[in-house]
């Protein structure tokens, strides 16, 4: 809107454009025209484009700083699916905007842990997993911010004024991860809270997961509504790890990082190292049982792994189980038909 003497009143014009929700289109149009004229009239166009770039950068920095100030709590988990449930639970509890959710994309119950806090140890672990686990390389590089080396950097940069809560369950994956994280945070003087959902989260009898387990064994099977209820009920009662326990966890990590095992279980409240082939006979027994029960020659690999994941409390790794099935094929224990490498596209049977 222009005044009668043709002098623009920018404040009124701006308000009018904002009310009409046309500002985005107007700015986009102006920038396109300026960019189109930048070759012919650089002395006129370039300062405008530079000013725009500077304003965008300033605005982005102000937004990030505002978010950093607003986000007061860090919630740390050991799987991306658990992180997704955590975000949903925090949203339901009204705490999402003031919370940061971090997660590892790893399974600490399998693969080498030797000197994992060092680059040499990380490369050793990466090589072992890449050689054995199907599609490991793709998921490893597709989720770089959740990789061990990047998470180590992220954890080191958490300011002391932000609280940290580590969520885990009674299983080898998360218990090993808990010890690793507490070792990485060993220089942090401010309190760290740990929530073991197996010990603290009792499901409601009408919950559809109650019959599977009244107490969830891992964060991976805790849904967002459970997290929301727990936070609303227990926000002021979360367990702070005392320094004595923190030092004990740190020592236990150092012991773990000197082991050469590649498979670990959680038994009687402790981490147990077992041979790599520890589950092989159980897999063979399951395959034989399914063959007899269903009168099948070959059993779909996806069905075998699905039953193992639901019937066994640990480990909860489909990739490790498939690796062991392929090992049994390669060493003459199983016959196969189909396309190994695509879990539901091939089947196996006990070698006759």
From TrEMBL:
Xref: InterPro entries: DUF1835, DUF3658
Domain DUF1835: 74-197
This protein's name: DUF1835 domain-containing protein
Organism whose genome encodes this protein: Paenibacillus peoriae
Lineage: Bacteria, Bacillati, Bacillota, Bacilli, Bacillales
Residue ranges occupied by any DUF3658 domain in the UniProt entry: 243-346
């Amino acid at each position: 809107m222009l005044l009668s003497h043709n002098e623009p009143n920018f404040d009124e014009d701006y308000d009018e454009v904002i009310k009409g929700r046309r500002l985005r289109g107007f700015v986009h149009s102006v920038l396109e025209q300026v960019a189109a004229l930048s070759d012919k009239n650089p002395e006129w166009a370039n300062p405008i484009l530079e000013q725009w770039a500077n304003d965008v950068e300033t605005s982005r920095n102000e937004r990030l700083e505002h978010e950093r100030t607003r986000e007061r709590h860090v919630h740390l988990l050991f799987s991306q699916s658990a992180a997704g449930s955590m975000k949903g639970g925090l949203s339901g509890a009204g705490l999402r905007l003031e919370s940061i959710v971090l997660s590892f994309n790893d399974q600490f119950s399998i693969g080498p842990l030797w000197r994992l806090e060092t680059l040499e140890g990380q490369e050793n672990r990466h090589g072992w997993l890449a050689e054995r686990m199907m599609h490991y390389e793709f998921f490893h590089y597709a989720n770089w911010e959740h990789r061990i080396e990047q998470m180590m950097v992220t954890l080191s940069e958490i300011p002391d004024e932000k609280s940290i809560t580590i969520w885990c369950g009674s299983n080898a994956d998360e218990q090993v991860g808990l010890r690793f994280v507490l070792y990485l945070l060993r220089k942090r003087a401010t309190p760290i809270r740990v929530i073991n959902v197996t010990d603290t989260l009792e499901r409601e009898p009408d919950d559809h997961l109650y019959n599977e387990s009244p107490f969830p064994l891992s964060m991976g099977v805790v849904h967002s509504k459970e997290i929301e209820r727990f936070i609303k009920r227990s926000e002021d009662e979360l367990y702070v790890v005392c320094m004595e326990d923190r030092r004990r966890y740190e020592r236990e990590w150092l012991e773990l990082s000197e082991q050469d095992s590649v498979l670990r279980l959680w038994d009687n409240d402790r981490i147990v190292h077992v041979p790599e082939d520890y589950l092989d006979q159980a897999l063979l027994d399951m395959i034989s049982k399914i063959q007899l029960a269903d009168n099948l020659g070959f059993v779909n690999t996806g069905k075998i792994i699905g039953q193992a994941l639901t019937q066994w409390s640990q480990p909860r790794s489909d990739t490790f189980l498939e690796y062991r099935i392929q090992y049994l094929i390669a060493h003459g224990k199983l016959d196969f038909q189909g396309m190994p490498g695509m879990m539901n596209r091939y089947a196996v049977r006990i070698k006759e």
